[in-house]
Amino acid sequence: MTTFLLVPGAWLGGWWWRDVTPHLRASGHRVVAATLTGLGERAHLLRSDIGLATHVADVVGLLHHRDLSDVTLVGHSYGGTVITAVAEQAPERLRRLVYLDAAVPRDGESNDDVVGSGLAGELRSAAAAEGKGWRVPPDASLADELVEPIRSWAVARLTPHPLQSFAEPVRLGSRAAAELPRAFLRSSPRSALYTSLLQRARADGWVCRELEGGHYPMFTEPRLVAAALAGLDA
To answer: What is the distance between the alpha carbons of residues 150 and 220, in angstroms, rounded to a whole number?
Structure first.
């Protein structure tokens, strides 16, 4: 049995893993889906001062208070930045890190640095125009890959994301964290960003897999995602 702790990307909550979780549990695995402060069912806690450090504390707190150990920590999209920083604080509780179409920051890089100045600028502009300068409204095209009725169900649950979390850098230095096994699962082959991150992961000797399903395969291909995660121990 593997313990999976699943961390969602921007604008999402633990609900985003709804269709993956039952497949993992049916195979005998333990699954915890995190919702970060200010998002999902915790949207009422959204504040201008919420940043990456808050979201890292959310996950570290889950590891501690639920007494989770030997954890496969999975991050999707922005969640990759979160799990990278979590590993620096709690490597002793982790078994491996898994990046699912996720940001992989290097020392001193923020999520903005990983995605590039173009997208980072769009996020800041959206926050300025519609989020009082500090919250980023959900991307209108986020659910374009989904089909009804899942699309409407998901869109109704998207929430604004705190802008500050994208700009805070990750600081690396823990030897124990650096030694953790890592895997990169790419599910959007047409993305130049995730293609480059996949290539870098391969060069670094990570386990790498290529999946179908687009950037949000938790709903488009949940069985494939669950099988890929469970298969990392094979």
So the answer is: 9
CATH domain 3-233 topology: Rossmann fold (3.40.50)
| Nearest by Cα to 213 from 76, 105, 27 | 76
> What SS3 class is residue 99?
strand
Q: Is the pLDDT of residue 234 over 80?
A: no
pLDDT band at 136 (very low <50, low <70, confident <90, very high): very high
Question: Above 90 in pLDDT, residue 145?
Answer: no
Report which residue type is found at 143.
A
For 2, what's the count of Cα atoms within 13 Å in the CB-facing half-sphere?
A: 25
Buried b (16+ CB within 10 A) or exposed e, 123-135: bbebbeeebeebb
CA 114 to chain centre: 13
| Residue 93 tokens, joined | 């509780």
Smallest Cα–Cα separation from 77: which of 39, 43, 42? 39
Residues designated as active site? 77
User: Exposure pattern of 185-211 as b/e (b: 16+ CB <10 Å)?
Assistant: bbbbeeeebbeebbeebeeeebebbeb
Predicted confidence (pLDDT) at residue 134 exceeds the cutoff of 80: yes
Q: Measured between alpha carbons, how far is 98 from 76 in angstroms, rounded to an integer?
A: 9
